[in-house]
Amino acid sequence: METTALSPDMVLGIPLFDEAHAALGEQIQTLLHGPDEEFEMHLAALVECLEVDFRVEEQLMDAIDYPAARSHREQHARVLATLHGLPPGDIDAGRKVAMLILPWFQMHLATADTALAIALQMAGRADSGSAEKGVPAASIARRRRDGATAVN
Prior knowledge:
Elements: H1 15-33, H2 39-63, H3 69-84, H4 91-122, H5 131-134, H6 136-145
Protein backbone atom coordinates (compact mmCIF):
# COMPACT_ATOMS: atom_id res chain seq x y z
CA MET A 1 0.00 0.00 0.00
CA GLU A 2 1.42 3.34 -1.05
CA THR A 3 1.44 6.16 1.47
CA THR A 4 0.60 9.62 0.20
CA ALA A 5 3.57 11.86 0.78
CA LEU A 6 1.66 15.00 1.68
CA SER A 7 -1.91 15.46 2.75
CA PRO A 8 -3.80 18.69 1.99
CA ASP A 9 -3.58 19.78 5.63
CA MET A 10 0.22 19.83 5.30
CA VAL A 11 0.21 22.72 2.81
CA LEU A 12 1.95 25.67 4.47
CA GLY A 13 0.74 28.47 2.20
CA ILE A 14 4.22 29.45 1.05
CA PRO A 15 4.62 28.50 -2.62
CA LEU A 16 8.35 27.88 -2.34
CA PHE A 17 7.82 25.38 0.47
CA ASP A 18 4.63 23.78 -0.81
CA GLU A 19 5.92 23.10 -4.32
CA ALA A 20 9.29 21.84 -3.11
CA HIS A 21 7.71 19.66 -0.41
CA ALA A 22 5.26 18.11 -2.88
CA ALA A 23 8.08 17.36 -5.30
CA LEU A 24 10.26 15.90 -2.54
CA GLY A 25 7.35 13.72 -1.45
CA GLU A 26 7.09 12.42 -5.02
CA GLN A 27 10.83 11.75 -5.09
CA ILE A 28 10.63 9.80 -1.84
CA GLN A 29 7.79 7.69 -3.28
CA THR A 30 9.84 7.05 -6.43
CA LEU A 31 12.79 6.00 -4.30
CA LEU A 32 10.62 3.63 -2.27
CA HIS A 33 8.81 2.03 -5.19
CA GLY A 34 11.18 2.36 -8.14
CA PRO A 35 13.20 -0.49 -9.64
CA ASP A 36 16.50 -1.46 -8.03
CA GLU A 37 18.39 -0.50 -11.20
CA GLU A 38 17.30 3.13 -10.74
CA PHE A 39 17.69 3.33 -6.97
CA GLU A 40 21.14 4.97 -6.91
CA MET A 41 20.07 7.56 -9.48
CA HIS A 42 16.90 8.43 -7.54
CA LEU A 43 18.78 8.53 -4.24
CA ALA A 44 21.37 10.93 -5.69
CA ALA A 45 18.58 13.15 -7.06
CA LEU A 46 16.81 13.18 -3.69
CA VAL A 47 20.00 14.04 -1.81
CA GLU A 48 20.81 16.85 -4.25
CA CYS A 49 17.33 18.33 -3.95
CA LEU A 50 17.29 18.03 -0.17
CA GLU A 51 20.64 19.82 0.02
CA VAL A 52 19.42 22.68 -2.15
CA ASP A 53 16.00 22.91 -0.52
CA PHE A 54 17.53 22.86 2.96
CA ARG A 55 19.96 25.59 1.89
CA VAL A 56 17.06 27.75 0.68
CA GLU A 57 15.20 27.25 3.97
CA GLU A 58 18.35 28.08 5.92
CA GLN A 59 18.91 31.26 3.91
CA LEU A 60 15.35 32.31 4.69
CA MET A 61 15.97 31.57 8.38
CA ASP A 62 19.07 33.77 8.27
CA ALA A 63 17.16 36.54 6.47
CA ILE A 64 14.62 36.83 9.29
CA ASP A 65 17.03 36.01 12.14
CA TYR A 66 14.90 32.98 12.97
CA PRO A 67 15.33 32.02 16.65
CA ALA A 68 14.94 28.26 16.07
CA ALA A 69 17.41 28.15 13.18
CA ARG A 70 19.98 26.05 15.04
CA SER A 71 17.64 23.16 15.85
CA HIS A 72 16.08 23.33 12.38
CA ARG A 73 19.53 23.14 10.76
CA GLU A 74 20.47 20.23 13.02
CA GLN A 75 17.46 18.27 11.76
CA HIS A 76 18.55 18.91 8.19
CA ALA A 77 22.13 17.90 8.97
CA ARG A 78 21.10 14.61 10.59
CA VAL A 79 19.07 13.53 7.58
CA LEU A 80 21.81 14.45 5.14
CA ALA A 81 24.46 12.71 7.26
CA THR A 82 22.37 9.55 7.26
CA LEU A 83 21.88 9.66 3.50
CA HIS A 84 25.54 10.42 2.82
CA GLY A 85 26.53 7.59 5.18
CA LEU A 86 24.71 4.90 3.20
CA PRO A 87 27.07 2.25 1.82
CA PRO A 88 27.28 2.67 -1.97
CA GLY A 89 25.38 -0.05 -3.78
CA ASP A 90 23.59 -1.36 -0.67
CA ILE A 91 20.05 -1.04 -1.96
CA ASP A 92 18.55 -2.90 1.00
CA ALA A 93 20.05 -0.40 3.46
CA GLY A 94 19.04 2.44 1.18
CA ARG A 95 15.43 1.27 1.00
CA LYS A 96 15.30 0.90 4.81
CA VAL A 97 16.50 4.47 5.22
CA ALA A 98 14.14 5.65 2.48
CA MET A 99 11.22 4.10 4.39
CA LEU A 100 12.18 6.25 7.38
CA ILE A 101 12.59 9.45 5.37
CA LEU A 102 8.89 9.87 4.59
CA PRO A 103 7.67 9.80 8.22
CA TRP A 104 10.58 12.06 9.21
CA PHE A 105 9.73 14.44 6.37
CA GLN A 106 6.05 14.54 7.36
CA MET A 107 6.93 15.23 11.01
CA HIS A 108 9.53 17.85 10.06
CA LEU A 109 7.03 19.59 7.80
CA ALA A 110 4.30 19.49 10.47
CA THR A 111 6.57 20.92 13.16
CA ALA A 112 9.77 22.71 12.13
CA ASP A 113 8.66 23.88 8.68
CA THR A 114 5.24 24.96 9.95
CA ALA A 115 6.88 27.10 12.64
CA LEU A 116 9.25 28.56 10.04
CA ALA A 117 6.33 29.28 7.69
CA ILE A 118 4.55 31.18 10.47
CA ALA A 119 7.71 33.16 11.21
CA LEU A 120 8.15 33.97 7.51
CA GLN A 121 4.53 35.11 7.28
CA MET A 122 4.96 37.32 10.35
CA ALA A 123 8.12 38.78 8.82
CA GLY A 124 6.34 39.48 5.54
CA ARG A 125 8.45 36.91 3.67
CA ALA A 126 5.72 34.35 2.86
CA ASP A 127 5.81 35.23 -0.84
CA SER A 128 9.36 34.01 -1.23
CA GLY A 129 8.97 32.86 -4.80
CA SER A 130 8.18 29.63 -6.52
CA ALA A 131 9.87 26.27 -6.28
CA GLU A 132 9.41 25.94 -10.03
CA LYS A 133 11.89 28.81 -10.44
CA GLY A 134 14.33 28.37 -7.60
CA VAL A 135 14.34 24.83 -6.21
CA PRO A 136 15.30 21.78 -8.29
CA ALA A 137 12.91 19.34 -6.59
CA ALA A 138 9.93 20.67 -8.52
CA SER A 139 11.69 20.72 -11.89
CA ILE A 140 13.06 17.19 -11.46
CA ALA A 141 9.63 15.87 -10.47
CA ARG A 142 8.05 17.74 -13.41
CA ARG A 143 10.55 16.24 -15.89
CA ARG A 144 9.86 12.76 -14.50
CA ARG A 145 6.09 13.28 -14.88
CA ASP A 146 6.59 14.56 -18.43
CA GLY A 147 8.55 11.45 -19.34
CA ALA A 148 12.10 12.81 -19.38
CA THR A 149 14.73 10.47 -17.98
CA ALA A 150 17.55 12.92 -17.35
CA VAL A 151 17.98 14.05 -13.76
CA ASN A 152 20.24 17.02 -14.46
